[in-house]
Give the backbone structure.
Amino acid sequence: MTTMESRTPLLHVQGLTLHYGAAQALFGIDLEVAEGETVAIVGANGAGKSSLLKAIAGIVAPSGGRILLDGRAVTGQPAARMAALGVALSPEGREMFGDLSVQENLVLGAVAGKPGKAEVGRRLEEVFARFPRLRERSAQATATLSGGEQQMVAIGRALMARPRLLLLDEPSLGLAPLVTDEIFDIIHRLGRAGTTILLVEQNAARALSASATAYLLANGRIVHSGKSDELLVHPELRRAFLGAASRGSPGQSRLGAAGFTNVRLEKPDMSKLTFLPSFASHEELAAHQLNGLRWTVRHARQGSPFYRARLDAAGVGADDVRALEDIRKLPFTTAEDLRDDYPFPLRSVPYEQIVRIHSSSGTTGKRKILGYTQKDLDDWANMFARCYEMAGVTPLDRVQIAVGYGLWTAGVGFQAGCERIGALAVPTGPGNLDLQCEFLLDLQSTVYCCTASMGLLLAEEVHKRGLAEKINLKKVIYGSERSSRSMRKRISELLGGAELFDIPGLTELYGPGTGIECSDHDCIHYWADYYILEIVDPETLTPLPDGEWGEMVVTTLAKEAAPLIRYRTRDITRVIPGPCTCGSILPRHSRIRGRTDDVFKFRGVNIYPSTIDAILSAIPGLGSEYQIHLTRDAQVRDRMRLVVERGAGVESRRTDELQREIVHTIKRKVIVTADVEVVDYGSLPRSERKTKRVFDDRIQDSIV
Ligand code: ZN
């Protein structure tokens, strides 16, 4: 701290020891308080905090060491002398004269300096200006005041001395949280007004957020010191504060071993904490990407027989990647590769390094299973925290997570990111509209995470029950499905004007959270420090320039368990050129427009046309030709209409029977309801090339 280096501190404690009889309470305490600074001493009950403060105030005499005020030794001076030198103590437990009025107690605080009557009046006026409540209560017996008001009297009494150094001992002791808020607000304001404060407090988080510098005291020793905002987010301290006691093994951390547990540490100040990368320029980001790309190629080649074979066949190694453009020399990877390599596709680390798997839904063939190392999970949580940050979610938010937990990547991803930013997670999972509404209402959730369909269902339910005015929903983070602008508008309106954020995701690429719509909307910033996104022509696989629509291809830069090299996602999007109005330098892509392989999502279910094909083929009397039409009705509900030909020579009187059978079988096997139209043989168009079977007209207006 520059003030400490350049100037004599107002208070300087050197090697201070204190004994109560044979028992030693303080062991060589060193501490400084600069003029105008608020310094906190934090620690558990019995750590020696109050003893230290009493020694400084002259109430108890130290057994060794020195106390300097303005560089002059004042060690062992009695309390009255210290008060005359400008050290005022607001003691633990307030120590008020209960029978005396508020004003009488306050006036006592001025006694040490022996000011004149007019001066006492002026100081009283200042205290009343700072604590209007005390003016109202000035004639009241102090014992009749609330705990918070008594604390105000105690601080006010100390201020009556016009202290150069204000010592506050446990100001929040015994106070309700709301009252504590009020007292700390006063401490903040005193600090801002230039009062030098040494604060002793068991509530570590409160003390750390109220101070510039802090000392952590355990068993009579300083175990840690530094800038308060850094201590507040210090991982070891957080672990010690939050984890050690509850894990039942406090010895695991140094502070835990020192008895420094049971101290509540509140959430970090998000205004000082960011999950966004700090690249100053596109060149810096590109250099980071090149390093990541080279690492990935080397790592995949060493760790995965699949990749080694592929890379060898393509004749490229990590040394051939000298510039980002060299990514084009690398072979593509596809979903089929993942299925062939089941159950641990693309595995590039030993099995024992894999700590979790996730799996994607699918209606045909084997599921895709992807493994994660602990670092993969950490990276993913960091990306997800970044998504919340970009959407403006803060530790004060309550995040109702209404997506699936379990094998699916969504729930646990939303959860991990939420915990990382320190918001409150309400893990309801999907469905159960009664429960969703109940929690929105009772917990006043401010953020809702869901699929687009679930968002619409909930919005309609909230509207139906007339809850829009009673809930507190501000943001909806939704993903996994395409959504139209009209659907977004409807969800937002029905939920009383909530702001919507589209979050894309792909199990192969960690899961959701690899990018998010920014507050300027209509584009998705993606985390280019974790993966490279290319847009290629799905037919020729030629890379396309920014701005052109094509298939999204991703290459990871840090993924360990199952790295992706030029993985074809089949999602259709484009890179949006130029900077975003939101100011982020992170690149962006459009919302996903569709799929190149005709897989479509209908009411939350991934459906492959081949599944429909197989069902229809198994029903005798039907021809080979069919079309799937997807539309959205006036209520913004998805509808599926199947147009199917009768087989050659099948009589038209069987139409109704065939129709019923198709509806029934689709419902049973795919669990969706379709409208079915059976038409004459030969009435659907044929093509020599791949016949277009899926006509997705759900979204006309959405894509930017
Ligand atoms: Zn933006």
